[in-house]
User: What shape does this take?
Amino acid sequence: MGKAHFGLIGLGVMGENLVLNAERNGYSSVVYNRTYAKTEEFLAGRGAGKDIVGAATLQDFVGALERPRRILMMVKAGQPVDDTIDAISPFLEEGDLLIDGGNSLYADTDRRVAELERKSFGYIGMGVSGGAKGALEGPSMMPGGTKAAYDAIEPLVRKMAAQVSDGPCVTYIGPGGAGHFVKTVHNGIEYAIEQILAEAYDLMKRIAGMNGDQMADVLAGWNETEELASFLVEITEVCLRTKDPETGADLVEAIVDAAGQKGTGLWTVVSALEMGVPVPTIYAALNARVLSSLRPERLAAGALLPAPPAHSFSLGEPADGMAPLRDACIAACIVSYGQGMALLQEASKLHDYNLNFSAIGQIWKGGCIIRARLLQRIQNAYSANPTLANLVLDPWFAEQINRRLPGLRQVVAGAALAGIPVPCLSSTLDYIDSYRSGRLPQNLVQAMRDCFGSHTYERTDKSGSFHTEWLD
Ligand code: 3PG
Assistant: This one.
């Protein structure tokens, strides 16, 4: 047998599916896993009858690959990636390529690209989104590193990626950790949309008294609209419709209300804070998960801090798609994409990523978790204006926000009076109301800062820096 075209390290679900995807696309493969038993199990199971062989050692693995070697690492982010690089590097030769397809911190990828390039190897940090099914059938891929390294894997990843009408869902993202940064922000947007839909569910259940099937019917309708048709709306419908096989009741009601996270949402928010980009809707989603995990504290607080008296308000009717609630969700989803894209704009300037925002819109249209019909509009908006500061400044999106704001206001105001938390919806409203304000109350904040700390302030009527002895 000749040498294999493609190598995979790490036979987790994503790794297995990605190597099956590569093989299906004509790339004979060799796989390596830290425990060889897992390799044997895979070759005897899902890998049986495919053009895939296993290697028991990294040396044999490397030796089984044609040059330049294309090796995808699907190992846990963090130290395991460095350990794998250290273990395999002695066997690599000039021009060989390592691809990290996990959710690595972009700063780690920056470092690894520089280190590996110094050794004359190529290194690609590639965000991969689409879950297990996407990995097998075609994910959205966000590769970053040197352009030369990307060129060496381009034919492979273009075949493996999801395909949409205007091409495969993969493109060269930019240098260093650009690919992992874009994937991180993708996940931040994912957190926000998940939380927005969870808030809609909570309101439909608690205010409108709807059951899982009734809510799922509403979601099915939303999924027919240009503004909300998306993978996350689609799976929310499925989650709400699914019954507990043991009780026959809605399964979602049997699930503990504490959500975890693996880090990318946190990194999105941390980098946004560091770069001075407001992303309150994404931040609210992250906080909602963190707060949800304080379950014993919440139960104790509930006993001391009772809910306000019952308050009912209209979320609309199922027959009209729960119009105010739907509009609130549309506004919040648009703003979530907008905050993520604004963060990417800033990161692109700061790190010289030279991101192509229209292309990012294009590769998110298929395969990935935040794929949505709206991404065509996002792609159009950035094609028309590549330096658009914020999505809501695009005419089509501005019109959408204006149309959806009354519904958002109605829902947030009603939820506030009913004592139902809607952190993403209310943050979105605050964000829009702040962003569209020519005059914010930070003049008073500046006065206070100058009062206690002589931080000085600027005036509206003349230029310069001023200080007042406020306390005399
Ligand atoms: C992933 O990339 O693994 C998920 O899309 C995000 O995972 P989390 O919600 O566990 O952080």
In short: The pocket of 3-phosphoglyceric acid is lined by residues 103, 187, 190, 261-262, 264-265, 369 (CB under 6 Å). DSSP finds 19 helices and nine strands in the chain.
